[in-house]
């Protein structure tokens, strides 16, 4: 079972990551977000930053759909994210190893090639 502290530890261990000041967590590489707290918006209510849910960059719609359909207990989306290569991850539904894989993959997709080359493929 992972949590926001695990996200922070894993993201900050990657090269050239910057944490943006936020009510939850928000990590960027080369000014591009790759994982952040879910800003839940419910009709008629103020936005709530959910640190138990991470928004992850996944690269493309095919990967997004594969995660949503293959692991619906872990991943979800909302209409606000339609057409965007982003999924929401229920942190309590993953272990630290799987979270490390997801965060690292998101970082790789957002990092410029010269930065991504600094991280060995096995990391």
Mind explaining what this structure looks like?
The protein has helices spanning 4-12, 61-70, 96-110, 113-116, and strands spanning 17-19, 26-29, 32-40, 48-57, 75-76, 86-90. With 123 residues, it is of the alpha+beta class. The longest helix has 15 residues, at 96-110. It is globular and about 45 Å long.
Could you provide a short overview of the structure?
It holds the Pfam family YjbR. The chain is of the alpha+beta class.
Topology:
Elements: H1 4-12, E1 17-19, E2 26-29, E3 32-40, E4 48-57, H2 61-70, E5 75-76, E6 86-90, H3 96-110, H4 113-116
Antiparallel strand pairs: 1-2, 2-3, 3-4, 4-6, 5-6
Helix pairs in contact: 1-3
Helix fraction, binned, reads: 25-40%
What's the architecture, going by CATH? Alpha-Beta Complex
Q: Let me know the largest β-sheet.
A: 6 strands, antiparallel
Low-confidence stretches: none
Class based on secondary structure composition and strand pairing = alpha+beta
Radius of gyration over C-alpha positions, nearest whole angstrom: 14 Å
> Kindly state the mean pLDDT as a whole number?
94
Question: How is the largest sheet built, in terms of strand order?
Answer: 1-2-3-4-6-5
From the 3D structure, determine the CATH topology. Aspartate Aminotransferase, domain 1
**What is the succession of H and E elements?**
HEEEEHEEHH
């Amino acid at each position: 079972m992972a949590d926001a502290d695990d996200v922070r530890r894993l993201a900050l261990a990657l090269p050239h990551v910057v944490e943006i000041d936020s009510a939850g967590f928000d990590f960027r590489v080369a000014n591009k977000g790759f994982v952040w707290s879910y800003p839940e918006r419910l009709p008629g209510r103020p936005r709530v930053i959910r640190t138990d849910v991470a928004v992850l960059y996944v690269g493309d719609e095919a990967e997004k759909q594969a995660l949503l359909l293959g692991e619906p207990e872990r991943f979800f989306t909302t209409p606000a994210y339609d057409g965007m290569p982003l999924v929401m991850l229920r942190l309590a539904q993953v272990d630290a190893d799987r979270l490390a894989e997801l965060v690292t993959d998101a970082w790789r997709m957002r990092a410029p090639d010269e930065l991504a080359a600094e991280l060995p493929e096995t990391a």
